[in-house]
Amino acid sequence: MSILVIAEHDNAELKGATLNTIAAAKAVGGDIDVLVAGSGCGAVAEAAAKVEGVSKVLVADNAAYEHQLAENVAKLVGDLGKNYSHIMAPATTTGKNMLPRAAALLDVQPISDIIAVESPDTFKRPIYAGNVIATVQSSDAIKVASVRTTAFDPVAAEGGSAAVETVDIVDDAAVSKFVGEELAESDRPELTAARVVISGGRGMQNGENFEMLNKVADKLGAAVGASRAAVDAGFVPNDMQVGQTGKIVAPDLYIAVGISGAIQHLAGMKDSKVIVAINKDEEAPIFSVADYGLVADLFDAVPELEAKL
Amino acid sequence: MKVLVAVKRVVDYNVKVRPKADGSDVDIANVKMSINPFCEIAVEEAVRLKEKGVVSEIVAVSMGPKQCQEQIRTALALGADRGIQVETDAELQPLAVAKCLKAIVEKEEPQLVILGKQSIDGDNNQTGQMLAALTGMGQGTFASEVNVEEGSVKVTREIDGGLQTVELQLPAVVTTDLRLNEPRYASLPNIMKAKKKPLDVTNPDELGVDIAPRTKTLKVEPPAERQAGIKVGDVAELVEKLKNEAKVI
Ligand SMILES: Cc1cc2nc3c(=O)[nH]c(=O)nc-3n(C[C@H](O)[C@H](O)[C@H](O)COP(=O)(O)OP(=O)(O)OC[C@H]3O[C@@H](n4cnc5c(N)ncnc54)[C@H](O)[C@@H]3O)c2cc1C
Ligand SMILES: Cc1cc2nc3c(=O)[nH]c(=O)nc-3n(C[C@H](O)[C@H](O)[C@H](O)COP(=O)(O)OP(=O)(O)OC[C@H]3O[C@@H](n4cnc5c(N)ncnc54)[C@H](O)[C@@H]3O)c2cc1C
Question: B119 lies in which domain range?
Fold first, then answer.
């Protein structure tokens, strides 16, 4: 078996999600090649070559791949992927955007968001907002799967010494163009990789009040998340949404503040090791998944928590 | 220009779905079914484009058993002009749905196809991307803003790091995210009017599409249950437990 893993990166740095995806590839077993498609992404390829368990790094360095436009990268993955038994990418917004497109070009039905590898053709994945876990077997010649990164512990970033090979294929579909992006600037850890996450919901009342959570986060080295209600209300940006249709997190500690615990929110955080809920309504469903529940007004409890840390 | 909108019939988002006891399938007998929330956002976007004068006709498509005509009627009540049902009682996987949609796109020649980013039952998040691949169109997935211009469309996308804007040549595929718009409610007169709007029925055979599944669900099971926790009396006790019992801070 031979597996092609699509690296997640920003042309400068290899992202951690790649290491979780390589871990899933190791669970399948076989040679693992990593594709780094980007522009000016040499340093990323060097980093990928050092990752434990990687046989070969393929670098496609071209302006067409600079912004990970799905139209171009999927075509490249479709071209290269023909030679592999498996193609895997992290289930990030980049992976989810590109991978199904590549799969369709190969006439393959992809498997989204795998959380376990049962055998080389059989995987587990959550459906219905995580209320059901399905075991799914693929009959396609090439298995294409996106990987829920929180379900696989990352492989070591160091210790490997893979060969780096240049790929000369330039796939420019010329139907799409990058216009611009607005990326959130933050010194805090990334939501999906943080050891501690503190999230606020509608109970926070406005964006300014999230400053209370930021202060706690600074003391704990935590990332700050939110419920959909808090994002929809404009308190905080969309990239902070945790849940079925937002980001999936599984930190050591998740603190939910002023969040009721709708199934769509639980889908994004219930695999956290320890869950704390602070809510003034003792009937709030969030308490049914919380290890430690505190029935209190958040405007009293959160400042007190910060002071006691 | 013409817009094609794909609408899917799914278990209502308020229903907590459980596996059957024998693990063969999920138990969705007699549960409330609705239009997938992301598809509702797709219909709303098309209707707003029509209200702005950008779009002249909205065609709503659904694939599935006879009952999915209800979801087409919902789309018609929200403002779509006509419906197409691709009737089948067989299991449909996203690749098959994308192939059926491709066949319809070839016939209808829309300038824009709008789908939900994911359906809340299968949670696959694949169909729009696959349709775009099969038709060679550009794709603006997870859209929070859509601006149609001369021969192109600018789509702002919700991505992990924030927002990204891309420009796609028309025709193009767009998939909706939650912040794109807030769908309206259908008014009673519009629900009545929708009953008279045209709805054509076809099937995968007529479209020349092989819908044979490529994956098989071997079993379904509930996720690992969390242990019920405790309530703490105050913040001091919470901090103490987190330090000494859970050892996470
Ligand atoms: C298609 C679809 C997708 C969705 N995807 C997601 C998703 O990915 N993520 C997500 O989070 N949601 C998602 N939702 C929305 C979800 O159903 C809920 O509406 C949402 O999670 C509610 O957010 P909330 O808990 O912040 O707000 P609410 O449910 O309004 O809860 C607010 C809570 O704050 C408490 N509170 C208020 N004031 C205080 C105070 N002073 N002190 C302490 N507690 C207080 C209240 O008791 C209440 O429990 C989705 C919904 C749909 C239909
Ligand atoms: C155990 C199990 C058994 C199942 N059995 C059946 C079955 O017997 N019959 C059956 O029909 N399904 C069945 N399904 C559901 C089916 O497998 C998935 O819903 C299917 O794979 C489609 O994936 P998705 O909707 O998640 O795609 P996504 O890619 O998440 O959908 C995105 C968007 O594509 C469009 N779209 C997708 N499907 C349709 C559609 N049918 N019509 C119009 N637009 C659409 C919508 O705009 C939607 O928002 C079953 C699922 C499971 C888990």
Answer: 2-244
Residue A119: strand pairing partners: A122
- Residue B138 CA to ligand 1 center (angstroms) comes to 34
| CA-nearest residue, atom 15 of ligand 2 | B122
Is the whole-model pTM more than 0.95? no
Q: Which of B97, B129, B207, B209 to mutate to test the pocket of ligand 2 (most atoms within 8 A of CB)?
A: B97
Contact (CB<8Å) B164/A107: no
- Report CA torsion sign: A238, A239, A244, A249: negative
Ligand nearest, relative to CA of residue B9: 2
Task: For residue B248, give the nearest of A112, A131, A252 by CB distance.
Answer: A252
ipTM: 0.96
The helix, strand and coil proportions of chain B, stated in percent and rounded to the nearest 5, come to 30, 35, 40
**Contact (CB, 8 A) for A37 and A60:** yes
Is B249 part of any domain? no
Of B18, B117, B235, the CB nearest to A304: B235
Q: Does B98 touch chain A (CB under 8 A)?
A: yes
Q: Please state the domain count of chain B.
A: 1
| Strands (E) located in A222-263 | 223-226, 253-257
Domain with B165 in it: what CATH number? 3.40.50.620
What is the C-alpha separation between A183 and A239, in angstroms, rounded?
Answer: 9
Tokens 């956290």 belong to which residue? A272
Give the pLDDT of chain B (249 residues) as one tens digit per residue.
999 999 999 999 999 899 999 999 999 989 999 999 999 999 999 999 999 999 999 999 999 999 999 999 999 999 999 999 999 999 999 999 999 999 999 999 999 999 999 999 999 999 999 999 999 999 999 999 999 999 999 999 999 999 999 999 999 999 999 999 999 999 999 999 999 999 999 999 999 999 999 999 999 999 988 877 999 999 999 999 999 999 999
Residue of A67, A175, A273 with shortest CB distance to B168: A175
The Cα A137–Cα B182 span in angstroms is 37
Spacing, Cα A110 to ligand 2 middle (Å) = 13
Alpha helix ranges (H) inside A207-277: 210-220, 228-232, 263-266
**B105 vs A contacts (CB less than 8 Å):** none
B41 within domain boundaries: yes
Helical packing angle, B127-135 and B94-108, nearest 10°: 50
Structural domains of chain A, ranges and CATH numbers in brackets: 2-166 (3.40.50.620), 191-308 (3.40.50.1220)
Q: Is residue B197 part of a domain?
A: yes
Nearest-angstrom CA–CA distance, A25 and A5: 8
